[in-house]
Amino acid sequence: MGLLLGLLLVLIALSVPVAFALGITSYVYMVVNGLRLLPMPQRMVAGVDKFVFLSIPFFILAGNLMNTGGVTRRLFGFATELVGWIPGGLGHANVVASVIFAGMSGAAIADAGGLGTIEVRAMVDAGYDADFAAGISAASSTIGPIIPPSIPMVVYASLAGVSVGGLFLAGVIPGLLMGISLMIIVYIIAKKRDYPVHDRLKLPQLWVAFKEALLPLITPLIILGGIIFGIFTPTEAAIIASTYALILGVFVYREIKPAELYDIFLTTANTTVIVVFIMAVASIFGWIMAREQVPQAAARFLLSLSDSPLVVLAIVNIFLLIVGLFMETGAAQIILVPVLAPLMHELGIDPIHFGVVMVLNLMIGLITPPVGVCLYVIANVADISFERTVRATAPFIIPLLIVLLIVTYVPQVTLFLPRLLLKF
Fold it and tell me: Can you give the pLDDT at residue 404?
C-alpha cells in the first residue's frame, strides 16, 4: 500500500490531473495484484449512484443562473450599501455578499468565478489595488460550501451516513464566524493602507438596494426552511433553488435570454462531469484502501500516538490541511471519510461536528497552492499572476485558521443549531 500511495503522490507532483492520477494508481494496483478489471467501472458507477448526489448539478446550476441573471450584482449592491461605509468598505461588502450568496449555491468556484468577477472589478474601479481585491475575493469564496447549501457537505453526509439537513444547519454559525473574521482583517488592512470608504450609510439608498435584492435574499430561507420543516429533502431543495433562480433570471429580472440558457446548461454539465468523474474514480481508490484495511491501520496508528480526542483532532487537522494542498475536495472526501469517520466515532466525536471540521479544512485548501482551485479562478478574474494571487490571499488564511481552531475545539459552535431545530 505504501508503494501505491507513493505512486499517487508522484503522479500528483508531476501535475497529472487528480482523477487520472487516482485512476492510474488504481489500475496499477489491480494489475499487480492479479485482480479482474471489471470491478473498476462497477465501482465507479456505484460510487456516484446515490440519490443525494442529484443535488450537486442543481446547486451548480443555481449558482450559474444567479451569476448570469443579475442576482449576484444585486446582492453585491445591497452589501455595499449595508457595510460599504465601514473602513475597507468594498472589502466588507465582498465578504457580506459571499455570505449571502453562500445561502444560494453550495460551490466555492461559483462564488469565485461569478460574484468574484463583480467584486474585483468594483473594488479596482473604486481605487483598491488588484492584489487586495483578489485576496479577499478568494478567501471569501470559501464561505460558500460552509453556509448551507453545500455540495461538500452533501458528499460527506452520504459517505458518513449522517443527516444532510443536520450538516447544513451545523455550518451556519461557522460560516458567519468566517465572515466576521475576514471583515476584521479587512478593517485592519484598510486602516493601514488608507483604502477608500463608500458613502456613509444612508437609509433611503439601503432601502432601494434591499428591495432590489429582496427576492434573492429569501432564497436561503426557502432552502433551509423547507429542510427544517420537512417540506422537501436537500436534493429537492437543490431543484427548487435552481428553479427559483431560473424564474428570477428569465421572468423577473429578464437578464437571461432564452438563447443563453443553452450555454448555462452546458457550463453546468461540464462542471458536473468534472466533479462527478473525480468522485467516481476516487471511489475505486477508496475501495482499494478498504480492501487493504487502511482505515483500521490509520486508526491504530493515530491511537498509538494518543487516545485524547483533542490531540487526535489536532493531528487530523494538520493532515487535512496538507491534503488540501494537493487534492481536490471531492476526491479527498471519498478517500478519507471512510478512513476518518470510524475513528472519530471511536473517540466519541460527533460525526456532524467532524463533518464541518473536515469541510472547513478542505475549503482552506481551495486557497492554498499548488492545487488551490479558487486561486486560479481569481487570478484569471483579476488578471494578475497566480503567484501574486497566492501572496495576496495569504493574510486572509490566518483568520480562517483561527475559526478552524474554534470550530474544532468548541463543538457547540456546530451542534447548537442542529440540536435546537432538529433535536439531534
Answer: 97
- Residue 81 C-alpha cell reads as 450599501
Question: Quick check: pTM over 0.70?
Answer: yes
Domain that holds residue 205: 38-421
Is position 18 within any domain? no
8 lies in some domain:
no
Provide the pLDDT for residue 424: 59
Please report, for residues 12, 80, 120, 226, 239, the alpha-carbon distance to residue 245 in angstroms, rounded to integers and kept in the order given: 37, 22, 23, 16, 10
Residues with Cβ within 8 Å of residue 351, at least 6 apart in sequence:
160, 161, 162, 341, 344, 345
Cβ–Cβ under 8 Å, residues 349 and 343: no
Does the pLDDT at position 42 exceed 80? yes
Query: Which grid coordinates belong to 344?
Result: 472519530
Is residue 26 included in any domain, yes or no? no
How many domains are contained in the chain?
Answer: 1
Number of H helices, E strands in the chain: 23, 0
Q: Is residue 346 part of a domain?
A: yes
Q: Determine contact, residues 354/340, Cβ cutoff 8 Å.
A: yes
Look at residue 132 and tell me whether its pLDDT is greater than 80.
yes
Specify the range with the lowest mean pLDDT, choosing from 54-58, 72-76, 124-128, 200-204: 200-204
Q: Angle formed by the axes of helices 412-421 and 386-409, to 10°?
A: 60
Which residues, 6+ apart, have CB-to-CB distance to 376 below 8 Å?
Answer: 386
Whether 164 and 154 have beta carbons less than 8 Å apart is answered as yes
